[in-house]
Structure formats: structure tokens, C-alpha cells
Amino acid sequence: MPYTMDVNVAKNQVLVKAFGLTEADVPAYISDFEQAMKKLKPGFTGVTDVTDSKTILTPEVAAMLAPTGDIAVAHGVGGWVYVADTPMWKMQMKRLFGKFAVHYPTYEEADAYLNSLLKQ
Predict the structure, then answer these.
(1) For residue 65, what are the domain limits?
(2) What percent of the chain has pLDDT over 90?
(3) Which residues contact 97 (CB under 8 A, 6 or more apart)?
(4) How many domains does the chain have?
(5) DSSP annotation string for 41-108
(6) pLDDT over threshold 70, residue 100
(7) What does pLDDT average to over the chain?
(8) Which CATH number characterizes residue 58's domain?
(9) Helix (H) / strand (E) containing 37
(10) Is-contact 37 68, C-beta < 8 A?
(11) Shortest CA distance to 103 belongs to which of 117, 120, 116, 86?
């Protein structure tokens, strides 16, 4: 499986772990993403962990995934963070997702950041 997507309803958070998405994977990913959004309340947070992905997204895959940002905003995202430990991933996430491209090298740091948003 090129990714996992887990929804923690109690925490109002979605956790995505990406292992290398291809163009063929994107329709299922978007469908799963839309289903995840239906389980969450406005103000939800999200984490995308790409630390186990061997490659960055191709331009084609990145373009196909771009609507997920709009979907998250439409459902009331309160914050999103990326777990990325390479400069290439950090650069790609910033280019693709702008202000939502906050990144940390570990899940624990990412989660602490999102928890800090809830306290504001």
C-alpha cells in the first residue's frame, strides 16, 4: 500500500503516512481523504508523514493531489503539519501547500505543534 490514512475521531485528527504515491494511487487517495473529512469536525488537525517515502512526488502526482488542500480548508482544517526529514520534501511541501507546509522531523514534534494550536 502506498499510504495509510487513519482518523482519530477522539483527537479530531487525520494521520497520513505516505510511502510513495503514483498517478494510479491518487484517485483512491482522494476518495479516502474525502471519507476521512466526513468523520472529522471543523477545527480538525492533520499530519502527513513522508519520512518513509523513498521519493518526492512527481509534478503530475503533486498536481493531482493539490485539491486535497482545498478539501481540507472547506471542511474547516485547524492546522496541518508534515513530518519530513529531508530538504527536498520540505521544499516540495512548502511549494505545494504554502502556509500549511509547517514541518517537523518527528511525529512527536509535529503533534506537539498541533496541540499548541488548540490551546490558542
Answers:
(1) 3-118
(2) 60
(3) 69, 80, 82
(4) 1
(5) -TT-EEEEE-TT-SSPPPHHHHHHHTHHHHHHHHTT--EEEEE--SHHHHHHHHHHHGGG-EEESSHH
(6) no
(7) 90
(8) 3.30.750.24
(9) helix 26-39
(10) no
(11) 86
